[in-house]
Specification:
The protein has about 130 residues and is an alpha+beta fold. The chain is built from 2 helices and 6 strands, in the order E-E-E-H-E-H-E-E.
C-alpha cells in the first residue's frame, strides 16, 4: 500500500520540511495549517474567528485536492496561542461542523509567529 503526497496551490505552501497532506491507508493526514492566504502567504484575519475560518478554508482546499472533504474529517488537532481564544474558535468551528463533529484535541501553540493565533491539523477518510 503506497502513499501519495497531496499538494495544491489553493492552500498555503508549507516549508520544505513537510507536505500539505499525505494520503495513505485510506486516510488523508493534513499537516498543521495556519490562517495564511494561499496567494500571498500573509495571515488572514485579526480575530480568532477569522483565523479559524481561514484555517478551515485552507484545509478544505487540501482535502478537495486529495479527493475528499471536511465532511469526512474524523479527527482534528487545534493549536491556539491563547486559551482565552478557545470560545471564539468554537464559535466558528460549529459553523463548519454543525452535526456529528470529528474527534478533536487541543494544545497551546508552541511557536509565536507574529499575528498567528491558531493552527489546525486534520485526518479525514480518503
Amino acid at each position: 500500500m503506497g502513499r501519495d503526497i497531496i499538494r495544491t496551490p489553493n492552500a498555503p505552501s508549507p516549508p520544505p520540511t513537510y507536505s500539505q497532506a499525505v494520503r495513505a491507508a485510506g486516510l488523508v493526514f493534513v499537516s498543521g495549517t495556519g490562517p495564511h492566504d494561499p496567494a500571498t502567504g500573509k495571515i488572514v484575519g485579526e480575530t480568532i474567528q477569522e483565523q479559524t475560518r481561514q484555517c478551515l478554508e485552507n484545509i478544505s482546499a487540501i482535502l478537495k485536492a486529495a479527493g475528499t472533504s471536511l465532511d469526512r474529517v474524523v479527527s482534528a488537532t487545534v493549536i491556539i496561542l491563547e486559551e482565552t481564544d478557545f470560545a471564539g474558535m468554537n464559535e466558528e468551528w460549529i459553523k463548519w461542523f454543525p452535526e456529528n463533529p470529528p474527534a478533536r484535541q487541543g494544545a497551546k501553540l508552541p511557536v509565536r509567529i507574529s499575528g498567528m493565533k491558531i493552527s489546525i491539523a486534520a485526518i479525514a477518510e480518503a
